[in-house]
Amino acid sequence: MIEIIVFAPLLAAIVAGLGNRGLGNTVAKVVTTGALFLSCALSWPIFLGFLGGTAEPGVVPVLHWVQSGSLSFDWSLRVDTLTAIMLVVITSVSALVHLYSWGYMDEDPDQPRFFAYLSLFTFAMLMLVTANNLVQMFFGWEGVGLASYLLIGFWFRKPTANAAAIKAFVVNRVGDLGFMLGIFGLFLVFGTVSIPEILVAAPTAAGSSITFLGMRLSTLDILCFLLFIGAMGKSAQLGLHVWLPDAMEGPTPVSALIHAATMVTAGVFMVCRLSPLFELAPVASTIVTIIGAATCLFAATVGTTQWDIKRVIAYSTCSQLGYMFFAAGVGAYGAAMFHLFTHAFFKALLFLGAGSVIHAMHHEQDMRYYGNLRKEIPITFWAMMAGTLAITGVGILDVFGFAGFYSKDAILEAAYASGSEAGRTAFWLGAFAALLTSFYSWRLMFLTFWGRPRWALSEHIQHAVHHGHDDPDEANPPRQENSDMGEPHHVPSPDKGDGTAGYHPHESPWVMLIPLLILSVGAVFAGFVFHHQFIDSAAFWNGSIAYDEHLIHAMHDVPLWVKLTATIVMLVGLFIAWLGYLRDTSIPGKFADQLGPIYRFVYNKWYFDELYRLIFIRPAFWFGRQFWHAVDVGFIDRFGPNGVAELVDKGAYAAKRLQSGYLYSYALIMLLGLVAATSWFMVR
Amino acid sequence: MELTSSLGLIAPEILLSVAGLFLLLVAAWAGDRASSAISIAACVVLGAAFFLVAPSVCAGAAGLETVAFGGQFRADAFAGFAKLMIYAAAGAALVVAPAFFTRYAAMRAEYPVLVLFGTLGMSIMVSATDLLTLYIGLEMQSLAAYVLAAFLRPDQRSAEAGLKYFVLGALASGILLFGASLLYGFTGTTQFELMRVAMAGPISTGTLFGIVFVLAGLAFKISAVPFHMWTPDVYEGAPTPVTQFFATAPKVAAIALTARVALDAFGTHADAWRQVVIFAALASIVVGALGAIGQTNIKRLLAYSSINNVGFILIGLAAATPQGASAMLVYLVIYVAMSVGSFVAVLMLRDEDGAPVERLADLAGLSRTKPALAFCLAAMMFSLAGIPPLFGFWGKFVVFQAAVQADLVALAAIGIAASVIGAFYYIKVVKVMYFDEAVNVVRDRSDWAHWALLIISTALMSPLGYLLTGPLSVLADRAAASLFFLV
Amino acid sequence: MIQAFAFYLFAALVLASGAFTILARNPVHSVLWLILAFFNAAGLMVIVGAEFIAMLLVIVYVGAVAVLFLFVVMMLDIDFAELRSGLVRYFPLGLAIAVVLAAELVLGVGAYRAGALELGTPAAETAPLVGEANIVSIGALLYGRYLFLFESAGIILLVAMIGAIVLTQREARADAGRSQQNISRQVSRRPEEATVNTRPEVGQGVQL
User: Fold this and answer.
1) Which other chains touch chain A, taking contact as 3+ CB pairs less than 8 Å apart?
2) Residues contacting C20, CB < 8 A, separation 6+
3) What are phi and psi of C49, to 5 degrees?
4) How far apart are CA A393 and CA A412, in angstroms?
5) Is the dihedral of CA B185, B188, B189, B194 positive or negative?
6) Does any domain span residue A238?
7) H helices present in A509-617, as ranges
8) Hey, which of A340, B84, B290, B450 would disulfide with B446, CB 3.0 to 4.6 Å?
């Protein structure tokens, strides 16, 4: 059964990818989407089996892969609680995104390619989560990276998309290096790459030390840190996060599937999969906590200032991933996985909702040109509302809450209850980030769905009004210049007419709305239904992650104010957003003017891109150019190919000159050869 | 008794000479009208000789029972292997001739007769185990070749080629004879076996001179640098079927003869001549490759190509081991097939008037006007360049392998590096055919025989050729072993 | 004693006439020098007891080959001055080669004479034939021991003959492309057919 789940998407990808245009759009769409729904349908029983405690973990071997000396491993599919959670998340979101793409990509000429990539991605992700050894996990890890690259650059005629794809790939390679070193190190220390064997052997290595880069370090700490670098790259943690916002250049369904629900959580999954190892590495865990919390805060601050609707959600994703990591860092792996689970639903929902809005607004992504859309596209509005309630964590203690309420509260409680310095810090940073989360989420909602229409100033809308709404030339949407480079403009005041420019947004087709509705159900109920098993049940996890009973007890015993913190900051954030974007829209502008330097610092994403350009990219280009001009052209080419070619050319000319055609010169050369040979023997 | 067994051993040669004499009579009687019939008859005779020789090759004949006429002649597997190639190549040269000469109204009945006698000379050459036999065979082959080169008398270039070949060949023969007289004087014998016995121990200067002079004379025949100068001029001037003949059969004969002289007669002093052979090998590779680069005439280019290939074969000789000799034979088989294929393809190129096309530039765009022909020629060129999936790679591989096994690693390395230069002009031909704009329409009115030869050689050079590596290696190993079989 | 004297005389004359064959300016002289060289070589053969070969030299080489050369040289109209211009240009280099070769040969022979080298023992057991007449011995060897080579040499001569005929007979044949003399047409040609009068304008040129 698990084989079908994993390999059906691969088969579909091969069929759609190789068939491509010969196959036609409809066949490709049916094959891929059908395969995904099949996988999804088979995944839920497995998950429910683990939920009910009836299923047993197991490993299904597929093929023997490598046998080289002491290095030996198989292709095999591991199924346990952790995998089962990932299976339902991946297959469900992927299936819904496939379906959604029927509508969203309807006008695109390259649909078979798109769907093939999507299915390929799903296969790679499934490979990753079912891996029983680190090499297979790395295969999946690189596979999702490849699919991500292909999908970000799907509209490859757009230079920005290409640049974003390359950026994502390169930044991920940096993380991958850490992951690879981690795998090498684990093999060096434990002599195996099998995950269960490593986890069993891990306690024996605790307390040992290893020399790395000339320093004497705790073995497990350094190994876990290296693995975490890999996780940072894939999960866009502070420092290696720069690719994620740019990745929004890809089509919106891709953002929902890869850059919100699944691939970016691979890092969290990996840390949880290896949680017994991290448990034995306190220093590395502390680093995980701090990086996670810092990312959480950083991304939230940036999210408050962005105008592009997808970028706001992208930074939100980054921030939520920070929550997961610091939960894992303080030892609450269950809470981390729970947040991963709920986040997958509500963040996919938000992205797909945003996609629906963009679809309705004719590919306009700037929130400054939205406004008052709740009456125009009500279903999308309500779906987005459900997602917003989930992400901001609305709920009443012990009664009912939306998905994020349970998972985020659990994380904050765990951070507080861990008692460590890093945990406490993470708690306060997380709480503040929750305030910011609430603020930017409601800011997004208010700017988009409330207020007065401000569509008239959008070039996309004007274009649509002049050329007819369903212009077939719009198949490949020309994206606007991103607003992240220049100074922030003032919010254009809707003074011309009613601000609609005569444009009527229309609700998306049902293939797009159905996934929204299904995900809305998940966003609303996922936390309420599953929180007991995820947080409180060691039996549910059944040893698939490190489960700390003490921490769970401590979490239940935290003071009431801690439990209420999340709700309080959520309300504060909502109030500020209401104040600034509904009641008096002049406040944000004044605020930005007042705190100019800080605003610009945050708006420009803490100048990370500029910093990297200065310290990495430009020196790298400089080195490259030096090697190109001086070494390659100046030395290798000059004395290598070109020099030899010139020599050959001269030799050919000499040989031609020698061949004069005169008999006596031929005879002379023969005799010269004879004399040379005899002389050689005489002097020898 | 001795005479009877000797006559049995030279049965192929007897067949060739009797058939040659008989066909000469027919030619004298029937005149040029019978030239086609005589050609066919000559082909049949060559085929019969082929099957006379084949059993001894398969059996790996060696030892005393192969010696005829008291040690002047030996019909062992090595000679047999070379004879098979010679007969096949001579047959190919007969097949393609009528179509070419008919255009000049120059197809004469003497052509097949001369080819037969030339083949007889080569047959004697490869079996020679005596300096006298060596010279007799060499001269018989050479005289036929001089006449064949000038066969198209009205054509200035053909006459010039014949004259050049004759004068330089006479010079080479003089050098060879002088060396032979030195050897006879210092060893007291003309037989290879006895000569080797006489040479045992420290080598005398006179003997050394004899060795050098004899090898120099032979180097002329195999057109190794610096005795190669005649090759481009003669190959270009001679009628194309004759050039094809020159590039294949006499090369095989001269190389086999050189190998026998060097490994048998001079075998105890391999260290003495090895350096000269190494120099000739490397110089041939480099000069052959460099010289070919500037050429605009396809026949001249192929002449340099043959010089280049001889260099690789000499690497096998420099090894002076049974593996080396076996590698030479394998390389020769492949070389003959490649040369026949290339020249047949060239012969099939005709311009609109039906005149032969020889300039490289006229090949431009052949891939569009004659895709099948262009494909075959491209396969030949890639194979000559030694590019792996094609069979030409195998020949170079075994030769270098033999050199490495004989501890001549540096020679092998330089040879491999130099073969890169050769790849340039082979691939240039392909480039001209496939990427240049067509300048004139190349038509061919080739008969099925041309196509058959071309397809056979292309199939041999294709990766299918590797199916032959097993039997080919076995036969070549046996032949090489018979060469090293001491009586 | 007399043998030694004769040997040195003949040998010196062979060398001298060989040199003059090459050096003579007049080709007819060259052939004459060649004939002298043959005669002296025949004399050398007589001294070593090979009288049959001496006869062959005189009859075949002097009587046939050299005389043929003489005829050919006299009949061919060759510009000898032009031929020799190359010789002068390349003479220094050729001389250098000759000197090197000669020096090496002297060195080799000198080493041989010094006794450092051992002369191999002749393999051919010619002893039983000693005492027979020269021609008998040669005949016995040619048709016995060297039968195969002798017959092969015959074929070489045949090939040479075929070659000569093939290359020269062609001239006699009426080649299709070659223009031939038509005597009747030549004789019947009249001035009116061959000449024409024109009066061209100045600066216009003539249309022929």
Assistant:
1) B, C
2) C29, C30, C33
3) 95, 10
4) 12
5) negative
6) no
7) 510-531, 538-541, 549-556, 560-578, 587-594, 596-603, 608-612
8) B450
The tally of domains found in chain A comes to 1
Instruction: Supply φ then ψ for residue A10, to 5 degrees.
Output: -65, -45
Task: Give the list of residues 6+ apart from residue A636 with CB closer than 8 angstroms, or none.
Answer: none
Residues near A156 by beta carbon (within 8 Å), at least 6 away in sequence: A162
Domain assignment present for residue A576? The answer is: no
From chain A, the residues in CB contact with C94 under 8 A are 668
Question: Within an 8 Å CB–CB cutoff, is residue A666 touching chain B?
Answer: yes
pLDDT in tens, A628-653: 888 888 888 888 888 888 888 888 88
ω into B226 cis (within 30 of 0):
yes
Rg of the Cα trace of chain C? 29
Task: Specify the DSSP class assigned to residue B359.
Answer: B
Is A3 domain-assigned? no
Residues 648-677 of A with CB under 8 A from C: 664, 668, 671-672, 675
Compare CB distances from B293 to A652, A659, A661 and report the shortest one's residue: A652
Interface pTM, i.e. ipTM: 0.90
| A65: helix, strand or coil | strand
Which chain A residues are Cβ-neighbours of B203 within 8 angstroms? none
DSSP designation for A194: B
Flag whether residue A674 sits within 8 Å of chain B, measured between CB atoms: yes
What confidence tens digit (pLDDT) does each residue in C174-200 have? Answer: 454 555 567 787 888 888 777 877 777
* B405, B320 contact by CB (below 8 A): no
What's the pTM?
A: 0.66
- Least Cα distance to B88 among B469, B462, B457 occurs for B457
Structural contact between residues A683 and C107, judged by C-beta atoms closer than 8 angstroms: no
| Strand-strand pairing, A395-396 and A215-218 | unpaired
Question: Could you tell me if residue A669 is inside a domain?
Answer: yes
Domain boundaries, chain C: 1-78, 146-190
Task: Return the residue of A nearest to C87 by Cα.
Answer: A664
Measured between alpha carbons, how far is A76 from A65 in angstroms, rounded to an integer? 9
Give the integer Cα–Cα distance in Å for C162 and C160: 6
Please list the residues that pair with B443 across neighbouring strands: B350
Interchain CB contact of A683 with B (< 8 Å): no
pLDDT digits (tens, 9 = 90+) for B34-79: 888 999 999 999 999 999 999 989 888 888 888 888 889 999 999 9
Domain ranges, residue A663: 653-684
> What are the φ and ψ backbone dihedral angles of B457, each rounded to 5 degrees?
-70, -35
Handedness of CA A646, A649, A653, A658 (dihedral sign): positive
Q: Nearest CB to C104: which of A668, A671, A682? A: A682
Report the alpha-carbon distance of residue B368 to residue B377 in Å, rounded. 13
Q: Which fold has domain C1-78?
A: Four Helix Bundle (Hemerythrin (Met), subunit A) (1.20.120)
Instruction: Tell me which chains share at least 3 CB pairs under 8 Å with chain B.
Output: A, C
Distance separating alpha carbons of residues A9 and A7, to the nearest angstrom: 5
Determine the distance in angstroms separating the CA of B370 from the nearest CA of chain C, rounded to an integer: 31
**Interchain contact, C148 vs B110, CB within 8 Å:** no
Tokens describing residue B273: 């001549």
pLDDT of residue B149 exceeding 90: yes
User: CB neighbours of C113 closer than 8 A, spacing ≥ 6?
Assistant: none
Query: Cβ separation of A661 and B216 shorter than 8 Å?
Result: no
For A78, A468, B170, the CA distances from B410, given in Å and listed in that order, are 55, 76, 36
Contact A669 B226 (CB under 8 A): yes
